[in-house]
Amino acid sequence: MLESKVEALLNRHSFELYNKKIVVGVSGGPDSLALLHYLQGIKDKRNLSIIVAHVDHMFRGQESYEDAMFVKRMCEQYDIPFEMTRVNVTELMGITGKSSQIAAREVRYHFYAEIMERYDCSYLALGHHGDDQVETILMRLTRGSSGKARAGIPFSRPFKQGTLFRPFLGLTKDEIQQYCQNHSLTPRIDPSNEKGIYSRNRIRKQVLPFLKTENHHVHEHFQRFSEEIQSDELFLQELTEKEINPVITAKEEGKITIDIKRFLRVPLPLQRRGIQLILKYLYNEKPASLSAIHIDQVFFLIHHQEPSGKLDFPNGLKVIRSYYHLSFQLQVTKAEAYLYEIKEPGKIELPNGGSIRIDYSDGELPKTNQYTALFKVESIHLPIVVRTRKKGDRMTLKGMRGSKKLKDIFIDQKVPIQDRETWPVITDKEDCIIWLPGLKKSSFEGIDYTAKRYILLTYDK
Length: 461
Description:
Elements: H1 2-12, E1 21-25, H2 30-46, E2 49-56, H3 62-78, E3 82-86, H4 89-96, H5 100-119, E4 123-125, H6 130-143, E5 156-159, E6 162-165, H7 173-182, H8 199-214, H9 218-244, E7 248-252, E8 255-259, H10 260-264, H11 268-283, H12 292-303, E9 308-312, E10 317-322, E11 325-330, E12 339-342, E13 346-349, E14 355-361, E15 372-376, E16 384-387, E17 394-396, E18 403-405, H13 406-412, H14 417-420, E19 425-427, E20 433-436, E21 440-441, E22 454-460
Parallel strand pairs: 1-2, 1-4, 2-3, 4-6
Antiparallel strand pairs: 5-6, 7-8, 8-11, 9-10, 10-11, 12-16, 13-14, 14-22, 15-22, 16-19, 17-18, 19-20, 20-21
Helix pairs in contact: 2-7, 4-5, 6-8, 6-9, 9-11
Keywords: ATP-binding, Cytoplasm, Ligase, Nucleotide-binding, tRNA processing
Family: Belongs to the tRNA(Ile)-lysidine synthase family.
Binding site for ATP: 27-32
């Protein structure tokens, strides 16, 4: 039953599950465990290569570590490569000010991308299901989301250099649990899923059961709604880009200006999407405080009789009207460039509030994450240099061929424009970039078991 529903969803999206190298995100819970079992079952027949990635967020101490060991044993049983990382997300929340759910999600997806690069995989499979879809759409509609956000969880989307896909979106939670029982799978249960403090859990416990009593196939209708909204929005976004580009009179880093008269000739359904497109370009990562109210304020400014006016948006963005021109401008303060050299163990405090620490390690090697990096001493030309970025900076990326511009990495990683000028860039004596802390590691980073001594770099943001 589960197998046929998964196949039906794959066929509807013309997604062929053959000859693929797939990283599978496995927490140890019912959804991801069933997904791993399903993919393992078709691995030989479909010529699949599977690598499991697990993140221990360290929320539950020893219990969450045991989740990781449980998944590791499953992988050993299936003879599948297992990769894990442990990140103290609670500590990360204190540093970044982000919520537990957002901070944990960012850590997971960063690790998934790292494993995809390491194993040269083009696909990431996650275990989201139909009940998750219903919950997500209801949450976003309740919060006032618009456009594509209302569509909820996509079946697939581009992710880094590959594709993320979710083959279980056509299934209910009950069907997955039944699958686990049928195949004698004993998943780990995270008690936080039962807490009523999260709005998703309240929808799961109170709203979803009611909807299922009204229609047992409600998840199928929500999935159809999701797919229709996504296809409609894709078409409307293409139209928006086509109509908005001639309206833009000036475009530079941190600033876009539009001609109001031309803008008002754009069809109304595309005007709102045009403003959203401009904000997305400038912000890279949408601030949590940005809402539909801000879009309404832009329209009020456009239609107001006064020839000038100004709006203050989150994160220092200003919207300024001057007669028939409207400018969206981020207040980017030009940061002072810096450069430090490090030869000996120690710590450097950076102007952006962070710090870089260097240590030598010739014993047991520590586990690394996006904020730590290991280099064998022989591969680095000392001194190590910590500096701000320079025009034309490029670096080789771990697990990938060729090099990439730092500017493109900042854009891909959604680093706010105002943070890019002070972000630390780590190079060796020859100005070869070996690490972009918190974002990307170079081909020089990693463990070589023939090496006797390592340099350990740690970035505290």
